[in-house]
Design a protein that fits this description.
11 helices, 298 residues, alpha/beta, 9 strands, 5-stranded parallel sheet
């Protein structure tokens, strides 16, 4: 029997919030398991974005775990290739890849390279690593689906605030509005840090809400670690998209997140972009994560 995961938007909000929060816990634990396998990685970003990954896969996306290339699926594109730990943990939680495979992260011969690649991993739609291109690819996919008459299929794209430095992002933003891609939903992870330092210091890019609105996008800004707020933003985007028949404004959710979210000892670490974590620290990291979810029935 083929199992199809359907969007959960018709369910009770409280049930949805709990389902997504439970998934986010499992995703965060999976991120730590992968990081421990190598002793390093882009752990902070994946922990911070876990609630966003969970909201998309546990609540919004239509897909078949055993059939990742199913033609009628919604698409999720991860533009930020180095957030791969988060995507792999999400795919494991969704049943697309085995959970035990996370231990092979970034190892020789693994299907889980440090930067996500579509040719390696089931369920990965695009190859990341060269930043700033995911939104453009999403525009092409959304337009292609519409031209095929697949107006009920959605394209989700996640990219980072660092990618907002790239001109290709804004070219894609103009194109999405020009073609009225109401079936395109973008999520930008605003964690405030990139390789060269604080995002605001590298290239000032605020106010984001006004900029995207001026490009004709349906724009919302939320706390990206508040599951209820994230789901409300997705609901508003989907409601407008359905009302417009998939040909209205494209949608963007600007999500402010905290690097290392869920593990206090990592949230306050000085060097957060790429973490090297000592072997004896992984156990306490997992303990802190579990303690933070204690009493929440995860």
């Amino acid at each position: 029997m083929t199992i199809t995961h359907e969007p959960q938007t018709d369910q009770d909000l409280g049930v949805r919030v709990k389902t997504v929060a439970d998934a986010a816990y499992q995703i965060r634990m999976g991120v730590l398991e992968q990081g421990e396998a190598q002793g390093e990685g882009y752990v902070g970003q994946a922990l911070g974005a876990a609630d966003l990954f969970a909201a998309v896969y546990a609540d919004q996306l239509r897909y078949r775990p055993a059939e990742p290339d199913w033609a009628d699926r919604d698409r999720f594109l991860l533009s930020i290739g180095h957030y791969a730990l988060g995507l792999y943990a999400t795919l494991a939680e969704a049943g697309v890849i085995p959970r035990e495979e996370l231990a092979t992260y970034a190892s020789d011969g693994s299907r889980l390279p440090m930067s996500a690649m579509s040719s390696y991993t089931p369920g990965v739609e695009i190859s990341g690593g060269s930043l700033g291109h995911g939104l453009g690819l999403g525009v092409g996919m959304a337009l292609g689906l519409r031209q095929q008459g697949r107006t009920d299929q959605k394209v989700f794209v996640m990219f980072s605030d660092g990618e907002l430095d790239e001109g290709s992002v804004w070219e894609a933003a103009m194109s999405a509005n020009h073609f009225k891609l109401g079936n395109l939903i973008a999520v930008v992870d605003m964690n405030g840090l990139q390789a060269d330092g604080r995002t605001a210091d590298v290239l000032h890019n605020e106010p984001q809400e006004e900029r995207w609105a001026s490009f004709g996008w349906h724009t919302q800004r939320v706390d990206g670690n508040d599951v209820a707020a994230v789901l409300a933003a997705f609901d508003a985007a989907i409601e407008e998209a359905q009302a417009a028949g998939g040909t209205g404004r494209p949608h963007i959710i600007i999500a402010d997140t905290r690097l290392g979210k869920g593990v206090p000892m990592l949230e306050t670490r000085e060097k957060l972009h790429f973490m090297k974590i000592a072997a004896e620290e992984w156990g306490p990291c997992k303990d802190q994560l579990t303690a933070g979810y204690a009493g929440k029935d995860v």
